[in-house]
Amino acid sequence: ADSAGAGNSANGELTERWRGALMNNYGTPRLPLVRGAGTRLWDADGKQYLDFVGGIAVNALGHAHPAVVEAVGRQIASLGHVSNLFIAEPPVALAERLLQLFGRDGKVFFCNSGAEANEAAFKIGRLTGRTHMVATDGGFHGRTMGALALTGQPGKQEPFLPLPGEVTHVPYGDAQALAAAVTEETALVIIEPVQGENGVVVPPAGYLKAARAITAATGALLVLDEVQTGIGRTGHWFEYQAHEGVLPDVVTLAKGLGGGLPLGATVAFGRAAELLQPGQHGTTFGGNPVACAAGLAVLDTIAAEGLLDNVKRQSERLREGIESLGHPLIDHVRGAGLLLGIVLSEPLAQQAQHAAQDAGFLVNAPAPNVVRLMPPLNLGDDDAAAFLRVLPGVLDAVNGDGRSGE
Ligand code: PMP
Fold it and tell me: Is the dihedral of CA 379, 382, 385, 389 positive or negative?
């Protein structure tokens, strides 16, 4: 079933060259892709796929969206990059625009990835004068050393110990455990509003609000990692805005923000916004005008095309459609907006991912029993319907034909 494995095809050839020239840190990716347009992708052999994983939430608007293509072309042709010794319009405009969407005064630090956005949050935490940090079991915050220290997945940390910081990990969604771990010495608490990499885990209602109260009581900063949930993914500009009474001190963003270009942001409010002093942090490409122009195009398009409403609508459609299939391998669907996890009744998610790929649909499997869906925010009725049509056959194939040994 692994079309990327064979040597006598364009897919196989690109895969062999990948093996020869790139480090093996990802293992060998399954599929060499050569073109994208909207919700569609094509592999090197010309096979077409519907993209229901969106580069893991990177593609808010799908592939080659005209607004992003136009903004990037216009910007790189006029002012490509200026370094942080100078000011340019796009990062200023994007920061203003983000703050407007947060509806609060604050300050933005631009960088190039989610891990880097969390590294800046880590440093802001240190500048409170406290060193202890609290994060969640199963949480994912990135692969750089500071972000990895906050990540709650011991298998990813183990080869790289010791990691910086004094980080306590607590069970996700458990407000009591959080209250017990946070003290007057705690610099920050970092939480994902929905744990994406851990299998689309949604915390109980009231969890973020409790986290806000607990951190406020001890003077710890509340950092929300919205790298995966932000920029409309859940049907809100930022997922915390769906939770009443939650105003974080820091929000980290990346993925969907850049419309496919590397762009991260650390957004801080109140005293957290004033902690970094001149010379204490930076990155060469931070605030790159081309990436920021793409970011502005993404935000403008989400607003202009009413995509937050589309996310809510397609989310309902997919959820109801999937659950009403009544397929024996489907237990239930969880998540928020277009960050959905199909929870299987058996740990066959990877096999389902492969069967879906054979059927021309790209999904992924963040946990052994969870198939994750993260289609573009502008997913259309036809694409949602096509997915619902093909899903039963995909799951039948997993159940019945021995693929589970793959
Ligand atoms: N935080 C969260 C919640 C993420 O899902 C990810 C990426 N999966 C990251 C941080 C790290 O982002 P990046 O890969 O851009 O460093």
Answer: negative
C-alpha span between 345 and 133 (Å, rounded): 36
Residues with Cβ within 6 A of ligand 1? 56, 113-115, 118, 140-142, 192, 196-197, 225, 227-228, 254
Domain containing 370 equals 10-64+307-405
* Domain at 355, CATH number: 3.90.1150.10
Q: Which atom of ligand 1 is nearest to the CA of 116?
A: 16
pTM as predicted: 0.96
Q: Which two tokens stand for residue 360?
A: 């021309």
Query: How would you list the strands of the sheet with 250-253, edge to edge?
Result: 107-111, 264-268, 250-253, 221-225, 186-191, 132-136, 166-170
Predicted-assembly ipTM surpassing the 0.85 threshold: yes
Is 183 in the same domain as 236? yes
* Structural domain total, the chain: 2
pLDDT given at position 3: 47
Whether the pLDDT of residue 403 is over 80: the answer is: no
What CATH number does residue 249 fall under? 3.40.640.10
Average pLDDT, the chain: 95
Q: What one-character-per-residue DSSP string does 300-342 give?
A: HHHHHTTHHHHHHHHHHHHHHHHHTT--TTEEEEEEETTEEEE
Q: Is residue 284 a known part of a binding site? A: yes
Residue 75 · residue 293 · CB < 8 Å: yes
| Residues 347 and 262 both lie in one domain | no
Residue 226 known to bind ligand: yes
Q: In this predicted structure, what is the pLDDT of residue 400?
A: 64
pLDDT tens figures, 26-62: 987 779 999 999 999 999 999 999 999 977 778 899 9
Q: Is 52 annotated as a binding residue?
A: no
Give the Å distance between the CA of 3 and the centre of ligand 1: 28
